[in-house]
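Q: Start with the shorter request: fold the first protein.
A: Done. Sequence, then structure:
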Amino acid sequence: MQEPADQSVVLNCLCVSSSASLAGMRLHQGDVAVSLGTSDTVFLWLQEPRPALEGHIFCNPVELQAYMALLCFKNGSLTRERIRNQCAAGSWEDFSDALRETPIGNNRNIGFYFDTMEITPPAVGVHRFDPNDCEVSGWSPEVEVRALVEGQFLSRRLHAERLGYSIIPGTRVLATGGASANKQILQ
């Protein structure tokens, strides 16, 4: 039986990788970078971090008086692909159309989709809520698509803010990874 990797080795790899990403994406104070891949990763420039049990805080590689944070979300593109297959006949074009056809805010319908045990927060299952905060079993395909995308990004923002991130004038959101090619997801 193979022994699991030493925690310090894993943490060092995370630190080097995320430091290179923050520097390579040329983040500045207030910026956030989102890598939309199999797992979604959020990199943050922080001035005054608030360490928490979820996420990681490191020294900032380009500013000695600042910090950077890394948040990883396991249910990223694979979850988006599942909803695309269920609600948009496996078509990214139809998925994008569903986003265009629904209003921002989704008429206060929101969903949280954890196909596998999530890292941040530790949760599993699909949780859909209507405008009255009542859990519901499902929606039309268009509402489902928007609930997924908005729920994912609201969750990322909530956890970023818990680590000390805040939007400031001039904040930029930089996206990379496979799903960043979809303009409707970026909106």
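Q: Next, the second protein, separately.
A: Sequence, then structure:
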Amino acid sequence: PPRILTLEEPVLHMDHCIAFAVHGNPAPTLHWLHNGQVLRETEIIRMEFYQQGEVSEGCLLFNKPTHYNNGNYTIVATNQLGSANQTIKGHFLEKPFPAVSGLFSFRMQYTPKFLCVDAKAFSFQVSIAVGLAAFACVLLVVLFIMINKYGRRSKFGMKG
């Protein structure tokens, strides 16, 4: 009957890989479960393996997995003499937002980090911005006055 020799946690190579090795004679058929449900291979998730004698070695490959791919992965090896399975936890990314209960509790529970600013730092930043704006206005007024005063004289005594 088949025997699972190794099943390793996901590692990032070119893609994320859950490496496995299965021994069996006759060669077992392999399929995967994700959280107890049959895992369907797609462009994002695929299995690659090679058979060397009685041992099948390979990877369950993930192309840019997200938090939806987190969970328990079970390899199931089956042949005419029996079956074997082994489970490993795959964790790729954290969920982007915490769990929310209720319709309006999102606003109360989640505040983005870029909005969390203490009052002293915020008032200092506002005073710097107001000061720069005032300086720019004064500079523009001075330039406008100088252009009006000195810009009207024609050079070399010629009248246009």
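Q: Describe the second briefly.
A: Residues 114-152 form one domain. The first helix runs from residue 105 to 109.
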